[in-house]
Batch of 3 targets.
Target 1
Amino acid sequence: MSGHSKWATIKRAKGAADAKRGAMFTKLTREIIIATRQGGPNPEGNFRLRLAVQKARDNNMPKDNIENAIKKGSGAAEGATFTEMIMEGYGPGGVAILLEAMSDNRNRTVSEIRSTFQKYNGNMAEAGSVSWIFENTGIITVDTSGIDPDEFSLYAIDAGARDAKEEKGILEIYTDPQEFENVKLAVEKRKKPISAEVTMMPKNTVQLTEKEALQTVKLLEKLEDLDDVQRVFSNLEYTDALIEKLKAEL
């Protein structure tokens, strides 16, 4: 299992404070608005909207909030106009960082992101500097208790998965984005996933000293906390030692 996925799973298991949940709802709302604007209000014919709505449901977002976001995206209700932004940079030790943001004020968002990079020993980068390191990939994680990991991996691959890896009781299934839904449905017939998402997966990772790694995680978390930032990706290698250190600080 990739270290980042393992760390994300641990953080989710620890739960989120109400304030964090409110921030998550704001980000989910913006994603639904943009997805609706781009592909229409019908999830059946809008892949991105289907994913956004499912993620909202997975995070216990109220049905009314989801419906209102779709209305705003389709123009049926008033709301701010958001623009999608992709920002790139480097963290301590040269870790590549890719951000997805949605903003109604580009200058404000760029300023906040740049300031956060500078404050936590990172720096912004030109477009294309690090994006090539990441690949759009569907990742489905499953607890291997009660299943045969090898048999389940073959089952997922037969359903359209690209690959699967098992480590310490967790099976991580990788898919191309267009196959994600089919594989997820097949997996759910046999076992409820721990998590399932389409994300930007690094093609290679960078292992840092403990000090640099902890600095990088702090930077990543501060970037994630910014209101206009939707998602943050990096190619930091989350070693077992780093994860244990981070768990102790939760």
Target 2
Amino acid sequence: MPWKGIIAKNFSVEEFDSYCHTIQWTAWRPSFIVVHNTAIPNLAQRPSGLTLQHIKGLEKFYRDEQKWSAGPHLFVDDKQIWVFTPLNLSGVHSPSWNKTALGIEMLGNYEKEAFDSGRGLQVRKNTVAAMATLSAILGFDPHTMRIHREDPLTTHACPGKNVRKLELIQEVQDLMIKRHAGEHPIKPAP
């Protein structure tokens, strides 16, 4: 299958929200979001976050070494949100859900690195903001979000033990209510 290409643009939380409102969701429309962590590189290996050079290196890795047709949709670090695979095309990130879900890679190894303090907390905030934007635009209930280790065809603990799914869902839901009150009704937690 031919390489789908990458966007290779980085955005602040606010810029990402604006960008997503310009996308036409006609070629492919996802049903939910899957959250991952990069593990390698981790936060310590990218002290200044991800750069365009890193993103181009990831493109080469997925396209030329893995021979995949695409990669994840987003790479999120403590400074920005990088759009990788176009959001309106299916990506490659989770064996069971590539055709139905957006894939978000968070910079860090959250099996070992903190996700509730320091740079990990900022990655978390940026990820929550990206998920809230995408959920509001696409009408996702945050409770449909999955973490990679839930994929029955996955054998590793991605995104790591320090990423707690229910906490992320609650934070996304809270931010959606704060930002988009009245636009998309959100069902209360079960």
Target 3
Amino acid sequence: MNCDLCNKPAVVHEVIIHGGKSTELHLCAEHAIEKGLPVPMQQPLADILPALGGVLKVEGVIGKGQQPSRCPACGLTFAEFKKSGALGCPACYDSFMPMIGQVIERAQAGATAHVGSLPAPSKDAAQAAERVQRLRSKLMTDLERAIAAEQYERAAQLRDELKALDTAPQVPDE
């Protein structure tokens, strides 16, 4: 299937449901990146995992006759990981990293750490930021009035409140 915007092969296929009606979107990698959509890896990790054992033996990570390690937390063996392609728990990453690190690096085009985008701010965070901005605006107005009225003690209190507002961690109200 080709991209909806050009004739290149589509790598992102998305179904959008709005108001009970669904529309399909097919985009090539370039147009998907422009729209901020995640682009799948060139070679899926599941396709790489069956060859994992052979690659590791060639590179000397697993020696002859050596049994693959077992995760101390969940008991998953490396052989089970190779079959399923899924790790059993967070401790599996540490247990199997010497054996899977190189494969993951190849699959991710050299990246071994997350390089994707962060999630969009939540509605609560946006509302909290808006409340802080309104409070800052009110304090500034009150500060200007206090200075104009020569109420310097009040102005100093308002100045201190503004400083505290700027240095406080922003946590949305529950």
